[in-house]
Amino acid sequence: MRPDDGRRRRSLRRAAVAGLMVLLTGCTPFLPTDPPTSTPPSEVGAWPPPAADRPVVDLAFTVSDSLDAAEGVENVSFSPDRTVCELVFRTWPNSPATARAGTALRVVSITVEGVPLPLRTEAAGAPAGSPGTLVRAPLPRCTRPGERVTAQLWFDLALGGDVDARTGRSTEARAAWFGTAFPLLAWVDGNGWATSPAHPFLGESTTSEVFRLRRLDVTAPQEALVAAAGRFRGTRPGGRPGTTTHRFEAPAVRDVAVTVGDLTLTRFDVDGTRVTLATPRHRNVDIAAWRDQVTTSLRGLVTRFGPTPYPDLWLSVLPGDNSGVEYPGAAQFGDIDPHADAWLVTHELAHQWFYGLVGNDQAAHPWLDEAFATYAQELVAPTSLSRDPQEWLGLDGHVGEGRAFFAKQARPGRTYVATVYRGGARALLQARVADGNPEEFDEAVRTYLHDLAHDLATPEDLARRLSHLTGATRVLREAGALP
């Protein structure tokens, strides 16, 4: 720790606490407009509305002047459908890929009704020397089914430098980005706590119900710009001199991503969807090419799967990344050529339907979002996967396996991608034509998206929507995707 770290952290802590108090009370006006007290119908789009009793989250980040750390305060309220005697949160930045790059998320304290709870952190796949990915907090008493529980959490976030990871920062571009970088409530109605461990290879393990992001406040140096998710509601002076607080809100998301720093924000409309593209200010990014490819990809996906699930879409081009990461209403990309890598742009945008709108247990059933996103990319921006029968498609009959299965393979990351992404997409492409009527398969997929909107799907849910398509069902069962 540097000699001034203690003073800096105390200052950040005070600012974060002050930010949340303003966030909760709403006593300080935001410019240009104040957040509405309820969600207008237009904000949830053309899909069925989310559950009225979904969790509600208020989240505040205070980012350091050097963009290498943040302190946060979270207020989360939910009504579990069964008795609970503890709270469980996931701290996914402590997964191997990000933790080894220097990123760490530490929960400092949790209170319920003002009473501090004891904390127990479990590694759950985190590498030695880093905080765990699972935090348990026993409650003073067990709750009744349906009883509302409200917790307040304080946490610290350290950001690894110049890394190719979903959470990190670039010293050269003076930018930071962090996704799933807060204590994520691990409750799943009907199943209980989601406690699957992280694994040391590519891919996400997140499982989260949708929640109402009532307010997201990001306080950053006043010269910085911020991209996040949901509707931007304006700015106000931050709690510390020289800072600005940026506010966002979203009616139904299951995760949150933030990009902050020396950015250029370019806004454009794609058939009613407001797209904001965040790019490093001093890098030569082809904005016109991005606008063109995002427009093409979104229109192709809407034609196949229905309206864009979110009225606002935030896309960040990151200097420290070379791939893409999906979030509800947002995505991170490396500094790629969007035309040459149209498949990647399309893949991450497809996740707005497959993961954002319809979620899944990414540890147990990763194919439900990754295979479908790859399938969607092949329909809209085909690659060699659609043309080359010699391309390795992984392990036959294992498309539906969970991440724990692939962790045991000799080359887990390569086998996982080949089996789940490529093999799963190939199975879906074959299933689409197996009954001789691709349009009927397309309609069944749209029904699946409609029926499971804002929910967590299982392979059984998909199987029921495909049950009348015997050929498609057979193909997916042989691939190991359906029960």
Automatic annotation (TrEMBL):
Highest taxon, organism lineage: Bacteria
Signal peptide: none
Gene3D superfamilies: Neutral Protease Domain 2 (1.10.390.10)
PROSITE patterns to which the protein is assigned, alphabetical: PROKAR_LIPOPROTEIN (PS51257)
Domain annotation Peptidase M1 membrane alanine aminopeptidase: ranges: 343-471
Pfam families in the record: Peptidase_M1
GO molecular function annotations of the record: metallopeptidase activity; zinc ion binding
Protein name: Peptidase M1 membrane alanine aminopeptidase domain-containing protein
Species per Swiss-Prot/TrEMBL record: Mobilicoccus pelagius NBRC 104925
